[in-house]
Specification:
- By secondary structure, the protein is an alpha/beta fold.
- The protein contains 9 helices and 20 strands.
- Helix 2 crosses helix 3 and helix 8 packs across helix 9.
- The model has no long low-confidence stretch (mean pLDDT 95).
Length: 400
């Protein structure tokens, strides 16, 4: 098969030229050479200047995902070994690696691929056709790197069941890669134990990106009354309890999540101080307010209310509503920890929404801390899709 050359239109490719990884369908002037979807192609600027290599898929609006800026680089086993080794070495320097995200797609220069480690299990999510072809080799190389550090992986589970795969012309897939194993995995993070369901839990089974944000709320929890909304598997609630909170209530609409949170509380011997309720947060918060309830700390860790630009307006209303209600439930001088995990809810828009919520609640908010995702989810500048989590801690005060 001859080399395929993709030439960009004049004036296009701004994202790639400034450090990004994606080339969109409307940026391409011509394609020369034979290829099938998922093949590696060489990208040229309009004047023939080589910009790099990436894999191409005509089914996707993201037409090319760049793998390297060296147009002469072979994307072979040794190239992939270097990418995998760099990713693992970075994690060893920046995070607790017992459970962490080892590969984070574009931010690790392996676009479309996510690999999480939960103790001795790997969970993989493949969202692009080109990287899907390389997936097994990458996983083999990753296990080799881990063995060099004395880490033995007993199993790999794939969670490529996201709807976005259909945009690539791929079917959703969920299942074992290799031998079957018990998919309930015990991990420990910040001294808290969790049972992670890698088969049926949300995303890859556990939200590793909040690792150090969970740690950050601990100093606010001693002898506190805490409300943890959208608790999922109870992670913020359990961190509050282990830090000395006198009472913690965790709330989630999912019965499965609540049951798992209760099991995690028992696992840590915290069931006497933490209770979990199956309730809709949007319904519960007004009820608590009407009942005169007050908390020293309210935590809001909702799922992404928007996964596209078209639904941002409605999502904004949702974020404003829950933050307004939460602020009214915080005692004077207490704290609110609030976040959004939506890439499309920009920093500026989230700030504006929080301002509006505070004004409507007749509260003054003092920012104590701003945080983002844990370092095992690195933010690659100019690859804006890698930056998504915004996490604030505010002191909430009555208007004075």
């Amino acid at each position: 098969m001859s080399e395929t050359i993709v030439t960009l239109k004049k004036g296009e490719g701004r994202t790639v030229k400034s450090g990004g990884m994606w080339i969109f369908d409307n940026e391409i002037e011509s394609v020369t050479g034979d290829f099938v979807n998922g093949d590696m192609v060489t990208v040229h600027d309009f004047d023939g200047y080589p910009l790099g290599k990436g894999f191409m898929n005509r089914n996707s609006r993201i037409r090319i995902r760049l793998m390297t800026r060296n147009a002469h680089q072979e994307i072979d086993r040794e190239f992939l070994r270097g990418r995998v080794r760099d990713a693992w070495e970075y994690r060893k320097r920046t995070v607790d690696t017992h459970s962490c995200r080892i590969i984070f797609g574009e931010a690790d220069f392996l676009p479309g691929l996510v690999v999480d480690r939960f103790s001795d299990v790997l969970v993989v999510e493949s969202l692009a056709l080109g990287i899907d072809r390389l997936k097994e080799t990458i996983l083999e190389l990753l296990k080799e790197e881990l063995r060099r550090d004395g880490i033995s992986i007993r199993g790999v589970y794939e969670r490529s069941d996201a709807k976005v795969r259909e945009n690539e012309g791929m079917e959703r897939f969920k299942g074992f890669l290799g031998e079957a194993f018990d998919t309930s995995v015990e991990i420990e993070e910040n001294g808290v134990k969790y049972l992670v369901d890698v088969k049926d839990g949300q995303k890859t089974g556990f939200f590793l990106d909040q690792k150090y944000n969970r740690l950050a709320i601990r100093r606010l929890c001693r002898d506190a009354r805490v409300l943890d909304c959208f608790t999922h598997t109870g992670s913020f609630a359990l961190n509050a309890a282990i830090a000395g909170a006198r009472e913690v209530i965790g709330v989630d609409a999912s019965e499965t999540a609540v049951e798992q949170a209760r099991r995690n509380a028992v696992l840590n011997g915290l069931e006497e101080r933490v209770s979990f309720w199956r309730r809709d947060v949007f319904e519960l918060l007004p009820e608590l307010e009407a009942g005169g309830e007050k908390f020293d700390l309210v935590i809001l860790d909702p799922p992404a209310f928007t996964k596209s630009r078209s639904s941002v307006k409605n999502a904004t209303k949702g974020y404003r509503e829950i933050n307004l209600r939460a602020m009214r439930l915080v005692r004077d001088g207490g704290f609110l920890a609030t976040c959004t995990c939506s890439h499309f809810m920009t920093y500026e828009l989230f700030i504006q929404t929080l301002h509006q919520a505070a004004r409507s609640a007749h509260k003054r908010i003092r920012q104590a801390e701003f945080r983002t995702q844990a370092p095992d989810h690195p933010i690659l500048w100019e690859a804006e899709e890698s930056s998504y989590l915004k996490f604030y801690i505010f002191q909430v005060c009555e208007e004075k």
